[in-house]
Request: fold
Amino acid sequence: MQLLSDRILNMSTSATLAMGAKARELREEGKDIIGLSLGEPDFDTPDFVREAAIQAINDGYNSYTPVDGYGELKQAVIKKFKRDNNLTYSPSQIVVSTGAKQCLANVAGVMLNEGDEVILPCPYWVSYADIVKLYDGVPVEVETSIDTDFKMTAEQLEAAITPKTKMMWFSSPCNPSGSVYSKEELKALVAVLVKHPNIYVVSDEIYEHINYGQGHASIAEFDEMYERTITVNGVSKAFAMTGWRIGFIGAPEKIARACNKLQGQMTSGANCIAQRAVITALNEPPSRVQYMIDEFKVRRDLILDLVSGIEGFKSNTPDGAFYIFPDVTHFFGKTLRGQKINNATDFSLYLLSEALVATVTGDAFGNPNCIRISYAASQDQIIEAIKRIKEVVS
Reply:
């Protein structure tokens, strides 16, 4: 009898976390690694949020929390959804979890049966496919390219739908491409989905506020999709609170209640101090964190300018998040410093070993032609990293 389950043996290791761990190991060996692999803002959590957490400690918050979140936090989430997304939810439609990743796992756990298909526009966030497979679902990848700004068209969505299609999962702004679906583009997808009323959508909007142009649109804003959409969000990215681990959903009540039931058996409620701090964060206007978004835009423009000077890198201009996702197929089949580059994974590992720059292979995101480079780093680090990359590929 084997020790470990087939479930865990068949699961992939998170490529972003694995690369982050490898970079840390090399740093411990004394190597000067520049980490552009993790999706983590390099800003401190805003003072007004930290002060709220300190106040919560002083006020004696230390007990178990309600499974689906403090009532005050749920009201703050409701206010946020109405203010930022024009979405109206009741408290019974909100579930607060230990990060947006748990939100996604909850939804998969309460909605997927064996063989249910989940459409994933590629590239997609690294954990989508494995979460779907963990709950016996079948990921259906829809390939996109840099030429379409890495966005799925209505025609592609229609072609991917089968009698087994249960859900579609996507993020906008997208991790890893930074692509943002406009309201018109979402409208075209909705026109397909209304013909298939049994398909539900997970809309991952964790990068909502890190948006540089056209503004954010939620697919649940469309009347036809409100009762068929689970909107996932959280505070990790916009408020630089990755380690605080608070995410939340707005969903049809039946789905929210099921997520609450599952979470009650798995982890119970999220951290009490973090929840109190998030009440303060969400009740403040998004303008309180605009300074971060402004700096990310400067960095985006900087890294795109620098990368444009590297022969063989082809990048779109992302409208959100803090990544670029360049196509690096130019290097496939070539030998660089004695190392044969067969694919994006080889190329990413080559950059780590030779340039001492940590990136992530696009294979992990369902696109084997690209690598993800995070610009959630200082301008000096970005300049030095791209300089090193240029040196080792020229």
Notes: The longest strand covers residues 165-171. The chain has a mean pLDDT of 96.
